[in-house]
Amino acid sequence: MPAIDLDRVGPGFADPVHDAQRVFRSLLTAMAEPGRIVTLDLPLVPPPGLSLAQCATLLTLADRDTPVWLAPSIDTPDVADFLAFHCASPRVGSPLGARFVVLPDLAQLPALDTLDLGDPAYPDRSSTLIVEVTELAEDGPLELQGPGIPDRRRLYAGGWSTATTRFAAANHAGFPLGVDLVLCCADALAALPRTCRITESTGASSCT
Fold first, then answer.
1. Are 104 and 49 in contact (CB under 8 A)?
2. What are the residues facing 102 on neighbouring strands?
3. Residue 21 in 3-state DSSP?
4. H/E element holding 139?
5. Distance between CA atoms of residues 83 and 88, nearest Å
6. How large is the average pLDDT for residues 58-87?
7. What's 73's DSSP letter?
8. What's the confidence (pLDDT) of residue 3?
9. Which pTM value belongs to this model?
10. Which distant-in-sequence residues (6+ apart) come within 8 Å of 62 by Cβ?
11. Of residues 68, 64, 55, 41, the one with CA closest to residue 12
12. What is the mean pLDDT of the chain?
């Protein structure tokens, strides 16, 4: 493992125990209520390439037992050293071997068959995708249905495309196998677990 350059490693959580607990509770809420937007109020400065929400999610969930794959555009010394120092997470060269897949946008979603989808005995041992989007807002064209959603919920995610909808549909169809998505936008996040059925409604008003 390459040596960590401590000169470029910024601080993590100001209060590691309590901040991690707060973020974990926020992530639990987001996963339990798919599409609900949760804002993280933390004094955290992420390394260049990660948003606050992405950084906080990794600081909370990643450790030496959870391999991380970074998309090439954010696989920089700043990000790599930050995660190595604060999380001790091993970095892997392929999304298939990663528990956490970190992406700068939805356009870089890997093909579903290149991700760890878990196995029938342990479907929870699969990848979680931590993806930055340009905007998160309620009442968008994405219509969500499934556990944790009374009737249905709408969401706008900047950068979402028809290709993303196809990815989400294939992921949902493979349940209980599949991956879970955490969409991040600056200090906010929303979760789209594999249990969530996502369709696009062309009649919904767009968000600005």
1. yes
2. 70, 130
3. helix
4. strand 136-145
5. 6
6. 96
7. G
8. 76
9. 0.93
10. 68, 83, 87, 89, 99, 100
11. 55
12. 93
